[in-house]
Amino acid sequence: MRLDILFFIDYDLDDELPWHSTISRTRQLFPESIFEEVFTNVLHMCIEKGMVSGHTQAIDSAPIKANASMDSLELKVPEEDLASHLQKIRHISAMGKEVPLRKSKENKASKDQQTISANKQELGAIKSRNKKWAKDQDKRQGAGNKGSKYTSNKTHYSPTDPDARISVKPGKARKLNYMSQLSVDTGHHVITDIRAYHADKRDNQFLQDIVGRLKPRLNRFGLLWHNCVADTGYSSGENYAFLEQINLQSFIPPHGTYKGGPDNFHHNRDQDHYVCPQGEIIPFKKVFNDYRTGTLKKEYRGTTHQCKDCPIKLSCLGKTAKEKKFSVTYYKAEYERNIKRVNSPKGSYMKGKRQSTVEPVFGTLTQFMGLRKINTIGIKQANKVMHLAAMAYNLKKYLKFTQKLSKTKAKALGLIFSKLNGLQNLIIFNFHQPNFN
């Protein structure tokens, strides 16, 4: 039907066309490495054309809808252990209706994916969350999505697509999604890296993997990466320290909850202790791993004698504590250096660059490049779909790109001299012509 496409792929009108499954099943026939290599080759074409500067990369993420329904979710086994627990935490909604489960035709989940892995603390958090939601179920985010009530990745899985994960964005309904992590060069908005991840983790857990893949790729083509720009979701002390170790400047705003210590307490860096408003020294005690966040922290603790007759004891310690005790992130110095960069004029410029670079690219991918929903099953196939969308985007920019020549005084002088030489040659030519008059 499309003669232009037949001409492009070098087919005549009477040639037999390939069977449609040869094209539609290509994603399943080739491994992920092939798609990534083709994406890298397309990126190399853009680099050779002068479309990629390499020095500043903007990183962002977006959930992409998986090809699975929330109504088909099933409980993780062993069911005999979960039955009594879920009976306690499950509440009928304010609408007074139970949600009918839509069974999938085939359970594609492995044994590990069907087995519950949550500990008692995590199950307790789910229980308290569901109690809170039960009081005002209809006003909760995503309450209109009937399959989203009282579900968690800790207790539920999708038999249709076990790699999909339940996730939610503020103001949106809970859905089964994949997480797309995207890196864009700020020069001409060329995509330099993309990958599918599970959607049940935070963005800062993916940053080191992204950088470890992207930096060698840029170095392979002779590009040096200097600035890593991302939003608050990628903030963590481990990430700041990691980027400093590989000589990358981070422009990642810290979380609003970050505090370098208690209010009005002064930190002595040389001796590593804090001085309270009353002049008492609160010394460093130990380094420990916070099990709730999985991050390293440093504990500082005073003595009961120091705080016994303190005039601000009640406001500083509260009603029950006997001595001052608090913890600070192990990476406080890295946090402070990053905050200084973020608050600088260059940091403001980088923030604008990020907002005008990576966010429009995601909008184009989801609206025009088929990345609004993953139409395949499994994270490997989802990764291929994302690479195909990124290739289409980069090729489109490649075809439209025209290199702009900078106007410099040297080029202007060269143009003037060339015109003068041309005029001189014209005069000499006319002077030496014979006069027939």
TrEMBL record:
<protein>
    <submittedName>
        <fullName>Transposase domain</fullName>
    </submittedName>
</protein>
<feature type="compositionally biased region" description="Basic and acidic residues">
    <location>
        <begin position="99"/>
        <end position="111"/>
    </location>
</feature>
<feature type="domain" description="Transposase DDE">
    <location>
        <begin position="275"/>
        <end position="398"/>
    </location>
</feature>
<feature type="compositionally biased region" description="Polar residues">
    <location>
        <begin position="148"/>
        <end position="158"/>
    </location>
</feature>
<feature type="region of interest" description="Disordered">
    <location>
        <begin position="95"/>
        <end position="167"/>
    </location>
</feature>
<dbReference type="Pfam" id="PF13751">
    <property type="entry name" value="DDE_Tnp_1_6"/>
</dbReference>
<dbReference type="InterPro" id="IPR025668">
    <property type="entry name" value="Tnp_DDE_dom"/>
</dbReference>
